[in-house]
Design goal:
It is a single chain. By secondary structure, this protein is an alpha/beta fold. It is built from 14 helices and five strands. Strands 1-2-3-4-5 form a five-stranded mixed sheet. The longest helix is centred in the middle third of the chain and has 27 residues. The two termini are 31 Å apart.
Length: 313
């Protein structure tokens, strides 16, 4: 190999282990694509957490710490404040107990009135998350569940997202997957019903931004009606500018854009794809996370017996 053919070091950090995709190129601010100041910030962040007794080895691998750093533009002090507050929230909200003991037994009933579900992967390997706000039936929803239980379910799903969905997707595509592809369907949305659940939506948005930062990849708002400007005026102030920049608001002509990002066999038929799961896509939870090893890992997590770091590298 001549000197001109020799590979150059483009990052201050090495790529994570286990990558089998030869075309993988990490985005800026990720392992394998850190500047020298970013690498130093990561090292400083970890050391300060360790020195202050805040560091939790099982949950705070470098990829996780980088999520908090990216959320605060690599300002170590701000990232540490965010993570410390998150740790306190985990205690206050009893997250570990939710992971081990929460049973959302009303799932099928809730699905009739407010479908929220993961379904297969997009073309970049992200788990696809779909929420159909337009099907919301406020009275029926709160006749079978409560806001508190909906938020516990949300946290349970975020934990599952981190501990099994992302690693399963990462293994399936051969490179780290750290974010989701979200579809928010507003078909037939009722502004009145939205106002009735705005407290839940606001609390859910806060949990996503503040406790599980940098988990949003693609975000499509489809079937946005003319009245959506009023809804968006309420939602937008809850979101930071980075989040807002990832949101693509589309009307009824969304199919080509979704199919450009999601394989047609992975997209439910009602959104322009070809998938028709036996029990309905919203209840199938179809995806690589259903493989035996990931199901076993989930069982170990619920019993508190899983060892080591299981977040995606």
């Amino acid at each position: 190999m001549s000197s001109s053919d020799a590979p150059t070091q483009a990052s201050a950090s090495a790529l994570p282990e286990g990558i089998t995709d030869p075309n993988y190129k990490p985005l800026p601010g990720r392992l394998g694509n850190l500047t020298v100041p970013q690498q130093h910030a990561l090292e400083k962040f970890k050391k300060e957490l360790q020195d202050e007794g805040v560091f939790v080895e099982e949950r705070m691998d470098d990829a996780t710490l980088l999520r908090f750093l990216r959320a605060r533009k690599f300002d170590v002090a701000l990232a540490k404040k965010m993570l410390v507050e998150c740790e306190q929230w985990r205690k206050d909200f009893n997250v570990e107990d939710i992971v081990k003991n929460f049973d959302f037994h009303e799932k099928e009933e809730v699905d009739k009135y407010y479908p929220q579900f993961y379904h297969k992967m997009d073309k970049d390997g992200r788990p696809v998350y779909i929420e159909q706000l337009g099907k919301l039936d406020f009275k029926a929803l709160y006749a079978c569940t409560t806001q508190d239980r909906l938020l516990k379910r949300l946290v349970y799903e975020y934990e599952k997202f981190i501990t099994s969905r992302l690693p399963a997707c990462s293994a399936a595509v051969g490179h780290p997957v750290e974010t989701s592809c979200t579809i928010l369907d507003l078909k037939d949305v009722s502004l009145t019903n939205f106002y009735r659940v705005k407290d839940y939506v606001m609390a859910a948005s806060s949990i996503g931004q503040d406790r599980y930062p940098e988990c949003m990849g693609k975000f499509y708002i489809i079937n946005a009606p003319w009245l959506f400007n009023g809804v968006w005026a309420i939602i937008r102030p809850w979101l930071d500018e980075v989040t807002v920049s990832k949101i693509d608001i589309i009307g009824s002509g969304y199919k080509d854009k979704l199919l450009a990002q999601i394989p047609k066999e992975n997209l439910p038929k009602e959104f322009g794809g070809t998938c028709r799961c036996e029990k309905g896509c919203s209840l199938s939870d179809a995806g690589p996370w259903n493989e035996e090893k990931w199901q076993k890992l989930e069982a170990e997590m619920s019993k508190g017996t899983a060892n080591g770091n299981i977040a995606p590298a």
